[in-house]
């Protein structure tokens, strides 16, 4: 990796990082009149006013100076309190560091534990940025396809176990999952944790959709999905990636947090110093308002996305041509259309035929390439219109298939 | 580097990254009553109201969604126009990408061109984050001490040439320099550029203090220092690191830009995607206001820092115990006290003896370890008071030295 490039070329791991597979479709459809954009993982509501106002007050007060690398102490304290409240326990505030987005938390997690010569296991389909970020670091992502059946998606624990080598450093657990909505049961979480303990591996736990759980059997305490922290000991080697983006409709704010064993805090401080040098204070004031006063908004958001889920599942089921198990968590429908294996082409076609923007399964790695991802964290009207348009286009295609076969 | 750590340890290049050498002094003095904090590279003015208001309006308008990875097109266009206006020429807007701070621009630059097995030449004394960031990437910083004499600091071109090996990938040019205020002449810029061309190396040009030039002989067009771009061809392999922090008193905003040959734009897009996924739109609105309407503020800031420079140079010269060549650029005095070689201890002592916070030269690498860095981008009153206190403490010490010798 190191020496075959001739100066002044650029590093291979930077040059050959994969582009997100969603971009091609997005660029194809972004300027279409009347397009319903369901390709990104983002709701249609702006950040609540009380959060925006907290940031604006901070700007007005002139909080425009350098700040603590790992975040304002009061924000880190509030994150710890939120965690205690939601998950139980009394977690050391020194576990939590504010980051310049959930993505930044993920990148720092990966930099802490992986690089050239290391493998990281990623159950797929998965958010493309896991594999993208690993690639830019020279680490090797090992994709392990999940099992798919009548009950939806599940970890393939045997396959994960078989994928472990002496080079393995970590296993990713993204639950609830982007893109599938898969939500791990305690059995599954314990299964992965046991493998990690046995082989001395890190767990990278991305639980940013933890509040978005729709299946009662997988709902803990009425408001969240099962968490790795429910089955771990405090000294287990787990790095949690968290974000303000989804819970509080703050995708554009670029603020998240990483949670790590306290012994690593000084290392994280350095990685923040030498990457972004912290998060603007006024952004942190917004985040503080969100995490201390934003529970009602989360409840509204979850209820709204559950409504969208119902509409899209019903609408697509009516076609009789779609394979979609209602997702237990997150806010995506991940579905395939009978007889279609090329999701990239289908996503492009559906822009022309339905004016609905979806993300192709090819973007999410092995095991779900023929699926499409649809974000239903939108108004019921928008999701309803998208469902109608998609059903019409799919029926038309289905009809065409049926006539050809007749 | 790769395999000697036993899982689940953390990566050596992360674990052993150096902490900033300023932190110890900062922690020692931060809570002292009446301390005058001149240790950080930050002025004492908040961001101008028109910039803060532009961001607040964006927040109020609900601009809280994901945005373009490389920045708003109108901001990138404005950066290109600012560059054309200040430096002349007609630079391709595709050269410019908005980043999550100047530090983020530096880290991405380093990730583009260096990693394990690569060496990067850094003339020192230098901003500690150059070496810190390289270390976290597994690259090897090669410190080349600058020359120091009656005329101040200069590049040691012969030493730079001798430091080049087959593993060298880049040479850092930080002009005007943090911490020394060194400002490269055209001869020096051409000398480094010739070496880079000859050996096919990248130049990393950090010109974030380019507007802060105090020596008329080094002032171009009445408002800036000589730039690498004045001597380069557009196709030279130069990466520019830029920041909104210093020009517009926006240190806390975490927004900067990287300028690179246009062919690298897609790679930068990926590195942004997989690191912070962009800069908040409302932050960019502030940056846009700054770069389009902030020239008068820069002029005020430069005039104010020039006043601070005069006060501190005069005040310290009066002691007859300080070696300080008035810095041609930036907003730091970099000086040493007769008979003192341990700048770390002196910085700690001056907190006790003068209640003034300075950064020790030990933080800035080889060649200036016995110096102290003082930021004079503060009100004349504050700088004056600091000069008085420092002069008193240094005279007292000087007196002690003289009595001991008598």
Automatic annotation (TrEMBL), chains A, B:
Its EC number is 2.6.1.-. The keyword Membrane does not apply. The keyword RNA-binding does not apply. Its cofactor is pyridoxal 5'-phosphate. One of its GO terms (molecular function) is transaminase activity. It catalyses: L-aspartate + 2-oxoglutarate = oxaloacetate + L-glutamate. Residues 36-390 form the Aminotransferase class I/classII large domain. Pfam families: Aminotran_1_2. It comes from the Bacteria. It is an enzyme of class 2 (transferase). Belongs to the class-I pyridoxal-phosphate-dependent aminotransferase family. This is Aminotransferase. It comes from Flaviflagellibacter deserti.
């Amino acid at each position: 990796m190191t020496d075959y490039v001739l100066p002044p070329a650029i590093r291979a791991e930077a040059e050959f990082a994969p582009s997100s597979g969603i971009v091609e479709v997005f660029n194809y459809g972004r300027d279409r009149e009347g397009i319903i954009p369901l390709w990104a993982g983002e709701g249609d509501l702006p950040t609540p006013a009380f959060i925006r106002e907290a940031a604006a007050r901070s700007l007005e007060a002139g909080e425009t100076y350098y700040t603590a690398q790992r975040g304002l102490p009061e924000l880190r304290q509030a994150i710890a309190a939120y965690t205690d409240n939601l998950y139980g326990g009394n977690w050391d505030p020194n576990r939590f560091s504010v980051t310049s987005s959930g993505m930044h938390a993920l990148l720092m997690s990966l930099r802490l534990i992986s690089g050239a010569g290391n493998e990281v296991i990623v159950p797929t389909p998965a958010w493309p940025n896991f594999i993208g970020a690993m690639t830019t670091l020279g680490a090797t992502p090992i994709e392990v396809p999940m099992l798919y059946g009548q009950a939806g998606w599940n970890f393939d624990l045997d396959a994960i176990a078989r994928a472990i080598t002496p080079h393995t450093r970590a296993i990713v657990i993204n639950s609830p999952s982007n893109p599938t909505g898969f939500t791990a049961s305690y059995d599954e979480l314990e299964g992965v944790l046991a493998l990690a303990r046995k082989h001395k591996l890190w767990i990278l736990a991305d639980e940013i959709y933890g509040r978005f759980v729709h299946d009662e059997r997988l709902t803990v305490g009425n408001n969240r999905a099962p968490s790795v922290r429910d089955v771990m000991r405090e000294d287990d080697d787990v790095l949690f990636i968290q974000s303000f983006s989804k819970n509080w409709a703050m995708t554009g704010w670029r603020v998240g947090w990483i949670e790590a064993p306290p012994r690593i805090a000084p290392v994280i401080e350095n990685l923040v110093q030498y990457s972004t040098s912290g998060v603007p204070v006024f952004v942190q004031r917004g985040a503080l308002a969100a995490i201390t006063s934003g529970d009602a908004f989360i409840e509204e958001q979850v209820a709204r996305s559950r409504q969208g889920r119902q509409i899209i599942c019903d609408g697509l089921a009516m076609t009789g041509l779609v394979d979609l198990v209602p997702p237990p968590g997150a806010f995506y429908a991940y579905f395939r259309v009978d007889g279609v294996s090329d999701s990239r082409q289908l996503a492009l076609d559906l822009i022309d035929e339905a004016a609905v923007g979806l993300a192709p399964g090819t973007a999410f790695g092995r095991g779900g390439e023929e699926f499409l991802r649809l974000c239903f964290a939108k108004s019921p009207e928008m999701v309803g219109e998208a469902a109608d348009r998609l059903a019409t286009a799919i029926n038309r295609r289905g009809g065409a298939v049926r006539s050809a076969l007749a």
